[in-house]
């Protein structure tokens, strides 16, 4: 909403609200969004981040909100148990639930047929998928240098887009990368994520997420590779809604509210080490 202007066209100052009104607004906004960052709240309410921090600390002491790194989570009906805003290094992420990620990667690889065209996102679980594809004759498009270098020594034909190289993984990003990937169609897109909530999958990086979103949009089958430690959590930026996915490959069947939302979104689920037929969520 634009600020009001005076008769001479000058921008009128925003009307100040009381601390009580501001804190009530914070609780209401959190109830609608689930999680909001300190910077978002400060911008929306026209106060400093220090003021928002004090408000959140007070509200948390009253049990009205749950404090999280960089923001807060709604108490009312919240299904989110964790908010991750800081991305660990790739080596650390590879070690987290490593055995589960290997199983997820192998199961995902079993879905792919010879000569198909596959888009593989960056990430620790998608790296496990790439390792399982070393002997498969497929065309792989990826913006991950690590995955591309790995697969270049195996059977797949590997294609990298142009663009800026960044990060410790590292990945290729930017407008050139996006334009090139938008000119292709893929049989499969395998997408890694930092977290999965009942409204979608999330990642740490805005730039990498822009690439993920293109891979989802340009693929016939969209598959999220997410181990169960990432269920019911949120991160910095939303990749896509659950409804945009065809399949979730994981190590444990999601239950409760997340399971119900996946079922409502008609997302099939494959659980590693179990019957390979898609599962119905409970």
The total of helices stands at 10
- Rg (C-alpha, Å): 21 Å
- Beta-strand residue percentage: 15-25%
Q: What is the third-level CATH name, the topology of the largest domain?
A: Rossmann fold
What's the count of strands? 17
Reading the helices and strands in chain order gives HEHHEEEHHEHEHEEEHEEEHEEEEHE
How do the strands of the widest beta sheet line up side by side? 7-6-5-10-13-16-17
- Quickly count the domains: 2
Given as residue ranges, the uncertain stretches (5+ residues, pLDDT < 50) are 1-7, 9-13
CATH class of the largest domain: Alpha Beta
Fraction of helical residues: 25-40%
Note down, in words, how this protein is organized.
The chain folds into 2 domains: 60 residues, Arc Repressor Mutant, subunit A (Orthogonal Bundle), CATH 1.10.10; 182 residues, Rossmann fold. Helix content is 35%, strand content 23%. The protein has 10 helices and 17 strands. Helix 2 crosses helix 3, helix 5 packs across helix 6 and helix 6 packs parallel to helix 7. The protein is elongated. The two termini are 42 Å apart. The N terminus is likely disordered.
């Amino acid at each position: 909403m634009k600020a009001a202007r005076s008769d001479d066209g000058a921008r009128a100052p925003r009307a100040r609200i009381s601390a009580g009104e501001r804190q009530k607004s914070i609780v209401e906004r959190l109830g609608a969004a689930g999680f909001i960052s300190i910077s978002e709240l400060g911008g929306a309410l026209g106060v400093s981040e220090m003021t928002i921090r004090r408000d959140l600390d007070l509200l948390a002491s009253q049990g009205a909100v749950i404090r999280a790194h960089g923001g807060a989570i709604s108490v009312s009906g919240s299904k989110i148990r964790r908010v991750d805003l800081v991305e660990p290094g790739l080596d650390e992420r590879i070690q987290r639930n490593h055995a589960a990620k290997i199983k997820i990667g192998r199961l995902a690889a079993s879905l792919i047929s010879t000569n198909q065209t596959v888009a593989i996102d960056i990430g620790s679980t998608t790296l496990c998928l790439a390792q399982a594809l070393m002997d498969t004759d497929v065309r792989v498009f990826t913006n991950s240098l690590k995955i591309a270098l790995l697969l270049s020594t195996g059977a797949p034909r590997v294609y990298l887009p142009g663009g800026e190289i960044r990060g410790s993984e590292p990945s290729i990003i930017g407008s050139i990368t996006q334009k090139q990937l938008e000119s292709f169609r893929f049989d499969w897109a395998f997408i890694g994520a930092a977290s999965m909530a009942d409204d979608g999958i999330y990642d740490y990086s805005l730039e990498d997420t822009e690439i993920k979103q293109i891979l989802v949009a340009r693929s016939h089958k969209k598959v999220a590779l997410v181990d169960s430690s990432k269920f019911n959590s949120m991160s910095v930026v939303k990749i896509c809604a659950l409804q945009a996915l065809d399949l979730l490959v994981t190590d444990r069947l999601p239950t409760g509210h997340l399971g119900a939302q996946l079922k409502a979104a008609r997302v099939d689920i494959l659980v590693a080490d179990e019957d390979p037929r898609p599962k119905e969520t409970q």
